[in-house]
Design goal:
Layout (H helix, E strand, L loop, with lengths): L3 E2 L2 H23 L4 E7 L3 H17 L2 E7 L5 H12 L6 E4 L9 H7 L11 H9 L7 H12 L8 E5 L6 H9 L8 E5 L6 H5 L4 E4 L17 E4 L3 E5 L5 E4 L4 H4 L5 E2 L7 H19 L4
Parallel strand pairs: 1-11, 2-3, 2-4, 5-6, 5-7, 7-8, 8-11
Antiparallel strand pairs: 9-10
Helix pairs in contact: 1-10, 2-10, 6-7, 6-10
Subunit structure: Homodimer.
InterPro entries: Aminoacid_DH-like_N_sf, NAD(P)-bd_dom_sf, THF_DH/CycHdrlase, THF_DH/CycHdrlase_cat_dom, THF_DH/CycHdrlase_CS, THF_DH/CycHdrlase_NAD-bd_dom
Catalytic activity: (6R)-5,10-methylene-5,6,7,8-tetrahydrofolate + NADP(+) = (6R)-5,10-methenyltetrahydrofolate + NADPH; (6R)-5,10-methenyltetrahydrofolate + H2O = (6R)-10-formyltetrahydrofolate + H(+)
Length: 295
């Protein structure tokens, strides 16, 4: 048996096509143009690449996009003032402060300063709390993308045994919460594993669905899964370089081995990765509609 490949690239493309239509309708029917600002502090190459991709995607969808790049030695006070400026800017529906921030910046204080109604990353404690109790909110982009992949691939989650490997605030913890809620792509029985779990294979062998997000390359191997499992690999680990200097990437799952036992699996790259920016755009459109009282 060889697994069905769940393509995040194709799924993201379909969602972006839907968003393009939705953004055009908002402009034509309501004179609304969703707005997103991305704030980058410093010159980290990976962060620069991410921010550039976010702006490029926004513009392609018809979303108004602004980018602010600040010096690495920017003070907490100046960054807070900038966030407050965009909190009060009616043209901007979504504020994204690119992480990680320089060490001297009080990251929680900055994120908490963002208006929760413009927190399109879904990191503000207000939105985290709304998510936990099942209220309408901005879902964190990567877990939201995983839900879309499961739903659009026709994977049945209701009653399924789901193992989430990882416990980060960005992926693992929200993923656990979303999978157990009474909602589409939920209603699962969820087990949490992490790098300190003593016998991870004991848990993963029981899983109908494995969501791997621990940041350890190829930690889930074929002998740790049962036949017919669905595997969502969130991990993106750089394990080397090609002769031309291009990064060689691996997920948290040993793709070549596990795909021979799995019913379906996401690749790395081309799996969850393309979904994250797409869900950021979806949240930005949601923010614009909420601000206008349309939802």
């Amino acid at each position: 048996m060889s697994a069905k490949i769940i393509s995040g690239t194709e799924t993201a493309k379909a969602i972006r096509e839907e968003l393009t239509v939705e953004v055009a309708e908002l402009k034509d029917k309501h004179n609304i143009v969703p707005g997103l600002v991305t704030i980058l502090v410093g010159e980290d190459p990976a962060s620069q690449s991410y921010v550039s991709a976010k702006n490029k995607t926004a513009k392609a969808l018809g979303i108004h996009s602004e980018q602010v790049t600040l010096a690495a030695d920017t003070s907490n006070e100046d960054l807070l003032a900038l966030v407050e400026k965009y909190n009060n800017d009616d043209k901007i529906n979504g504020i994204l402060v690119q992480l990680p921030l320089p060490k001297h910046i009080d990251e929680p204080k900055i994120l908490n300063a963002i208006n929760p109604d413009k927190d399109v990353d879904g990191f503000h404690p207000v939105n985290v709390g709304r998510m936990v109790v099942g209220e309408k909110c901005f879902l964190p982009c990567t877990p939201h993308g995983v839900l879309e992949l499961l739903t659009r691939s026709g994977v049945e989650t209701s009653g399924a045994e789901v193992v989430v490997v990882g416990r980060s605030n960005i992926v693992g913890k929200p993923m656990v919460n979303l999978m157990l809620q009474k909602r589409p792509a939920g209603n699962s029985t969820v087990t949490v594993c992490h790098t300190r779990t003593k016998d991870m294979a004991f848990h993963t062998k029981r899983a109908d669905i494995i969501i791997a997000a621990a940041g350890v390359p190829k930690m889930i191997t074929a002998d740790m899964v049962k036949d017919g499992v669905v595997v969502i690999d969130v991990g993106v680990n750089r394990i080397g370089k090609t002769e031309s200097g291009k990064a060689i990437l691996a997920g948290d799952v040993d793709f070549d081995g596990v795909k021979e036992k799995a019913a379906a699996i996401t690749p790395v790259p081309g799996g969850v990765g393309p979904m994250t920016i797409t869900m950021l755009m979806k949240n930005t459109v949601q923010a614009a509609k909420q601000a206008a009282g349309l939802i």
